């Protein structure tokens, strides 16, 4: 009975690898062998022979040549050859190459999603709906109020709300009223959460101050036998913010917008946006980046060991993809933004 079970497993295993070989055979991106000018391309039977011979001879070399063309699940079938009883001579090399291939595949998938979200971001910004001022205000009312809203004049607020109320109907007015209530509740919740964090930080600071007083042996102001009832908490300041310039207002608005853009890219808008419409949608692929990747695959298939070009191009691609990150870091480090952020925190 156990013998039959073992045979069934071996048969299933062989079928899996046969399926993998056939998928490699149908892949037009693979160069099976170097060809001289004018030489005919190998036939299907010759290609299959190359695949099978390399597989039977050395699993490490097989993975080095064909691994980049396999899916994560297909690569996992080679996990058995990372055990000493399955491949005593090369099991360690198999493990290293297999892990490297799967890690690169996972990284590639993450980069693909990142690229698609960036393309979707550009489209949404151009459409001026999801990233309109009013819609962004609804999604993060507290941040909007801190960076933009509190600096608007009454006329500017009216103009903002008027744009959102053009061509209104009774139903739309009711929906807008509901949205405003929800936005106000959201703002209060965010403010409470932020207040709790600040209170926690202040308690820690007060505890440290108390310890310092005890350690320094400072005399108490109360008489013997009396409890010291006066509060040691520092009074909160209710100083109004100073008037800011038009340039500072613009800078704060830019900071708000870039924060909202980054939230979208980081997947923090799940409550408002269905990311599956982008992450699995090939129409958001960057064709220029895909062509660049295809060229890399072509040259890599000619020489497996030549990885320097791949690393260099990968660094260039990553730097070009992170333009928004670089801009945000520079914006957040701007002295005016830092000063205003401190000013805002003092008044909360």
Measured as a percent range, the helix fraction is 55-70%
Uncertain segments are: 218-240, 307-312, 314-321
How does the major sheet shape up? none
Mean pLDDT, nearest integer?
Answer: 76
Order of helices and strands: HHHHHHHHHHHHHHH
Radius of gyration: 31 Å
Distance between the amino and carboxyl termini: 74 Å
Domain CCD97-like C-terminal: 115-302
Biased composition (Polar residues): 213-223
Pfam families: CCD97-like_C (PF09747)
Organism: Rhynchophorus ferrugineus (Red palm weevil)
Please outline the helices and strands:
Elements: H1 2-25, H2 44-57, H3 59-66, H4 72-76, H5 91-127, H6 133-139, H7 141-147, H8 154-164, H9 170-216, H10 246-265, H11 276-279, H12 287-302, H13 308-321, H14 323-332, H15 335-346
Helix pairs in contact: 1-2, 3-5, 6-7, 10-14
Would you kindly provide a written description of the structure presented here, covering whatever features stand out?
- It contains 15 helices and no strands.
- 68% of the residues lie in helices and 0% in strands.
- The relative contact order is 0.08.
- The longest helix has 47 residues, at 170-216.
- Among the domains are: 2-25 and 42-114, no CATH class; 139-212, no CATH class.
- The chain starts with a helix and ends with a helix.
- It has 348 residues and is mainly alpha-helical.
- It is elongated, with a radius of gyration of 31 Å.
- It comes from Rhynchophorus ferrugineus (Red palm weevil).
- This is CCD97-like C-terminal domain-containing protein.
- Residues 213-223 have a biased composition (Polar residues).
- Residues 115-302 form the CCD97-like C-terminal domain.
């Amino acid at each position: 009975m156990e013998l039959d079970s073992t045979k069934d497993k071996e048969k299933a295993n062989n079928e899996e690898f046969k399926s993998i070989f056939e998928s490699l055979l149908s892949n037009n991106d693979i160069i099976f062998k170097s060809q001289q000018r004018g030489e005919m391309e190998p036939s299907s039977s010759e290609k299959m022979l190359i695949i099978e011979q390399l597989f039977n001879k050395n699993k490490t070399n097989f993975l080095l040549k064909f691994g980049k063309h396999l899916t994560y699940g297909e690569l996992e079938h080679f996990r058995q050859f990372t055990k000493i009883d399955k491949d005593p001579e090369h099991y360690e090399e198999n493990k290293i190459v297999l892990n490297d291939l799967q890690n690169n595949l996972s990284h590639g998938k993450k980069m693909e999603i990142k690229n698609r979200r960036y393309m979707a971001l550009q489209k949404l910004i151009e459409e001026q709906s999801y990233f309109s001022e009013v819609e962004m205000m609804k999604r993060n009312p507290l941040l909007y109020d801190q960076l933009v809203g509190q600096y608007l004049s009454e006329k500017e607020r009216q103009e903002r709300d008027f744009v959102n109320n053009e061509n209104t109907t009774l139903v739309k007015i009711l929906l807008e009223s509901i949205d405003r209530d929800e936005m106000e509740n959201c703002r209060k919740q965010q403010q409470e959460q932020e207040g709790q964090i600040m209170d926690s930080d202040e308690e820690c600071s007060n505890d440290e101050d108390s310890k310092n007083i005890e350690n320094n042996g400072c005399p108490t102001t109360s008489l013997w036998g009396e409890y010291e009832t006066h509060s040691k908490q520092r009074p909160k300041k209710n100083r109004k913010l100073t008037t800011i310039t038009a340039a500072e207002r613009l800078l704060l608005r830019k900071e708000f917008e870039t924060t909202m853009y980054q939230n979208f890219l980081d997947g923090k808008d799940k409550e408002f946006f269905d990311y599956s419409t982008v992450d699995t949608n090939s129409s958001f692929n960057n064709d220029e980046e895909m062509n660049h990747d295809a060229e890399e695959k072509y040259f890599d298939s000619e020489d497996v060991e030549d990885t320097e070009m791949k690393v260099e191009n990968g660094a260039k691609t990553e730097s070009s993809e992170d333009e928004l990150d670089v801009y945000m870091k520079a914006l957040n480090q701007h002295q005016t933004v830092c000063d205003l952020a401190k000013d805002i925190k003092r008044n909360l």
